[in-house]
Design brief:
Two copies of one chain form a homodimer.
Chain A (H helix, E strand, L loop, with lengths): L10 H5 L9 H24 L4 H14 L9 H4 L2 H20 L3 H6 L1 H26 L5 H10 L5 H10 L6 H33 L5 H34 L6 H20 L3 H11 L6 H7 L3 H22 L12 H19 L9 H7 L5 H12 L1 E2 L2 E2 L3 H27 L3
Antiparallel strand pairs in A: 1-2
Chain lengths: 427, 427
C-alpha cells in the first residue's frame, strides 16, 4: 500500500529520503488540517459577536501568524509554505468563480454604467488624495514618490468583499453586482496606471518622454480580454457542454466547469489581469441552461458541486492572509503618521466612489465600503517602487513601504464589520 | 480587483514580476484545466470499451506524457510541476479517505485474518520469486542484488485498485475489504523489510552483524500507529464532532472530517508509513453516527461533501501517474528479459497471495489481482538500492532499475482491465 505516489520521472528526488516515505504532502496536509479547524473556531467566534465568518478567519490567522512575537516560531512554516500559498491562490479563484456563478452576464450589464462610474471615481479620487497627502507630508521627496503612493491607493481587493457578501447572503443584490463589476474594471485601470507610472518614472530617469503606445496596447489587450471572453464565452459555453454531455464518464459537469474557470483565469493572467478576474468572468458566463442535459444526468448544479471545494480551499486563503499580516509593521519607526493619513485617504477615496452609482434606492454607502479593501496590487506597486530609482533616488523607501503595508492591513480588517453594519443598518 | 493574493510576508518575491500579475497559480490552473478535461475524454473512451474510467485517465496521461517522443515538448512542464504533484498527492489521500468512509473499523476487523494472511503470503511469495529469478538471470551479481530485487516486488500500490473498485461500485464487498486491509498490512511489512534489507547491506558493507533492535523499533512504531489510531480514533471521533457541532459556523462537518483525515495522514507519514494509510484509517474510523447532529444541521453526509473534492483532485493523480510513465524504459538495452521475468513473478506472487483469504465463496482470484499493482515503494526501494554499495559494487545498477520501472508500469496498467474481468466473470 506504500506504493502510491508513483514518480517514475522524479525518482532521483525520492532516493534521498532514506527509510519510510517522507512524503512531501505530509507537512502540507497537517497545515491544512490546522487551518481548516482553526478557521471554524474563528468563524464561530465572529458569528457569536455578530460578525461575518471571514473576519474570524482573518483574526485567527493574525493570531497564529503573530505568536512568533511571543517567541513561538510554531506557525512560521505555514505562512510561507509555497504549497499552501498555491492552495490559497486556487481557493480565491474558486471563490470568485462561485460568486460569478450567482450572477449572469446580462445582470452585470444592467449595472455596467454604475460599475464603470464607481470604478473611475474610485481610482481617480484615492489617487488624487494619496498624491496630495504625500506631497504635504513628505515635501522633501520627489513628485514621483507622490505619484507612486497615489497609485498604490487605487486598486480594490475584492476577495474580502465577495466573501462578506456571501457570508451575509447578499451577493445577488444590485449593490453587490456594482461592487464586483467595478472591481473588475478597477483591475483593468490598475494595469493601465501601473504601465503609465512605470513609463513616466522610466522616462524621467532617462530624461526622455513617456511612450504612450505601450500604455494603449496594455489597455486594448485588457479590454479585449473582457469583452472578448464575455462575448465568445456566452457563445462557447452551451456548445462546450453539448459535447461534454455526450461523454460517458462521471462528474463531467464539474470537470468542464472548473476547466472553463481555470482556463479563463489563466487567460486573464496572460493578458496581465488578475486570475480572479477570469474566474469571475467564467462564473458569469456559465449558466444552468447551458448544461441542462448534464444537470439532469448528474443530478447536481455546478454551484452545488463547487461548494464543497470552496469550503475546503477558501478558508486557506483567508487564514493565510491573516497569518501574513505582520503586526510589527505598525511599530516601524516614523510610519504611523503617514500610515494613518493613507488609511484615511484610502477609505474616503472609495466612499466617494460609491456616490458614482446611478439608480434609485441604491445603498451607496455599502458600495463605497465594499470597495475599501486594498491588497496585493498596492503591495506590488509599492515593491516595484522600491526597485525604481529616479536620478539615483529610490522612489519608495522602507518607511513608505511599511505605511502601505499598514494601509492594506487596516482596509482589509475593517471591511467585514463595517460592511456588515452598512448592509444591515436599514432593517 | 487585482488586489487579491496578498502576500505581505513575501513581497520581495513579487517585485520581480514587472507589470501585470504573473500569478504563479496561472500555469498551475491551466494545467489543471487540461488534466480535468483530458481525464473525462479518457474516461469516456475507457467506458466505451467497457473498461474502468481510471484506465482511460492513465492512458490519456501516457499519451500526453509521451508526445515528447514525437518531438513535442508540450506537456513536460505538467508532469514535473511540483504544485501539480502536490495536488495529486492530496488527491490520492482524499481517494483513500473516501474509500475508507465506505467501510467501518468493525467491518475491517471481520476480514482481519484474511487480510493478514493475504498480506503475508503476498510479501513472502514475490520476495522469494524475485530473489530466485534474479539469482538465475544475473548469476554474476552478488546475493544482495537478489535480496533488493525481491524486496521491490513486495509492496502493493492500492490506489489503482481502490479506484477500480469505486468505478465498478464494488468497494463494499468482502473482497475489496480484504485487499484494502492487506494493503495496509503490506505497508507495515514493507517498512520493516526496507529496514531489514538496508541493515543487512550496511552490515555486509561494514563487515558487521545486522542490528536487530532498529528493525524491532520500526515494527513496533508502525503497529502502534495502526492499533493506536484505530482504538483512540474510535473513542475520539464522536467527542470531536460533539465539540464541532456546537460551533456556530458553516461547513463545520467537512472542515473537521478533512482535518481528521489530514492529521492521521501526517501521523502515518511521521511513523514511516504512507500518508494514504492514515487517510484510509481516518475514513474507517469516522462514521455517520458520530456526527449525526452536524449531518442534520448541515444536511449532508461527509461522503457527499468529500465527493466533489475527490472529483476535482483524484483525476490529477491518475493522469499525472500516466504522464510520468516513461515509455523509453521499455527500450532500454538488455532490460527486456529481466523486466519480463519480474513482471511474471510480480503477478504470480500476488495471485498466490489471494489464496490466503479464508472464508466461503470468496473470489480469491480478484483478491490476488487487486494486490498486483506496484508503485512508488518498488521505485523507492530500487532508487535506494542505486545509492547503496557493498564492497564498492552498486547494489542496483541502471539496467535493474529500468526493469523495476517496467514492472511497475505493467502491473499498474494491466490491473484495471483484469480486475474488471475477474470481478464480473461470474455473472
Amino acid at each position: 500500500m506504500l506504493a502510491l505516489t508513483f514518480a517514475i520521472a522524479t525518482v532521483p528526488a525520492l532516493a534521498s529520503e532514506g527509510s519510510g516515505h517522507g512524503d512531501p504532502a505530509a507537512p502540507v496536509v497537517l497545515a491544512l488540517a490546522v487551518i481548516l479547524v482553526a478557521a471554524k473556531f474563528g468563524g464561530d467566534l465572529a458569528t457569536r459577536i455578530k460578525q461575518p465568518a471571514v473576519l474570524g478567519e482573518l483574526l485567527v490567522g493574525v493570531v497564529l501568524g503573530n505568536v512568533s512575537l511571543l517567541g513561538l516560531q510554531l506557525f512560521e512554516p505555514i505562512a510561507n509554505n509555497q504549497f499552501l500559498d498555491m492552495f490559497s491562490r486556487v481557493g480565491v479563484i474558486i471563490l470568485l468563480f462561485e460568486v460569478g456563478l450567482e450572477s449572469t452576464v446580462s445582470q452585470m450589464m444592467k449595472v455596467g454604467v454604475s460599475a464603470l462610474l464607481v470604478a473611475t471615481v474610485g481610482v481617480v479620487t484615492p489617487f488624487a488624495l494619496g498624491y496630495f497627502t504625500t506631497r504635504a507630508l513628505l515635501p522633501a521627496h520627489s513628485v514621483y514618490v507622490a505619484i507612486f503612493v497615489g497609485a498604490t491607493l487605487t486598486a480594490t481587493s475584492v476577495g474580502i468583499t465577495a466573501r462578506v457578501l456571501k457570508d451575509l447572503e447578499k451577493s445577488q443584490t444590485p449593490e453587490a453586482r456594482i461592487v464586483l463589476g467595478a472591481a473588475v474594471i478597477d483591475d483593468v485601470m490598475g494595469l493601465v496606471i501601473l504601465a503609465v507610472v512605470i513609463g513616466i518614472i522610466g522616462a524621467a530617469d532617462r530624461g526622455t518622454e513617456l511612450q504612450i503606445s505601450e500604455v494603449v496596447i496594455t489597455l486594448v489587450k485588457a479590454l479585449g480580454f473582457l469583452v472578448g471572453s464575455l462575448v465568445l464565452g456566452v457563445w462557447l459555453s452551451p456548445r462546450m457542454f453539448k459535447i461534454a454531455s455526450r461523454l460517458r464518464a462521471n462528474a463531467v459537469l464539474l470537470a468542464f466547469g472548473l476547466g472553463f474557470c481555470f482556463a479563463l483565469a489563466w487567460l486573464a493572467d496572460f493578458i496581465g489581469l488578475a486570475p480572479i478576474v477570469g474566474a469571475f468572468a467564467a462564473g458569469l458566463i456559465l449558466e444552468d441552461v447551458h448544461y441542462k442535459d448534464l444537470k439532469d444526468k448528474e443530478d447536481h448544479t455546478l454551484e452545488e458541486l463547487v461548494k464543497p471545494i470552496s469550503y475546503f480551499l477558501v478558508p486557506v486563503f483567508f487564514v493565510l492572509m491573516g497569518m501574513r499580516t505582520d503586526l510589527k509593521s505598525f511599530a516601524a519607526p516614523g510610519v504611523l503618521t503617514l500610515a494613518t493619513a493613507l488609511v484615511v485617504m484610502a477609505i474616503i477615496g472609495k466612499l466617494v466612489a460609491g456616490l458614482g452609482a446611478v439608480g434609485k434606492g441604491l445603498d451607496r454607502l455599502s458600495i463605497g465600503v465594499g470597495m475599501i479593501p486594498r491588497g496585493e496590487v498596492g503591495l506590488i506597486f509599492a515593491s516595484i517602487g522600491m526597485q525604481l530609482t529616479v536620478k539615483g533616488e529610490k522612489v519608495v523607501d522602507q518607511q513608505i513601504f511599511s505605511a502601505v503595508v499598514v494601509m492594506v492591513i487596516v482596509t482589509t480588517m475593517i471591511t467585514p464589520p463595517v460592511l456588515k453594519w452598512t448592509l444591515n443598518r436599514r432593517r
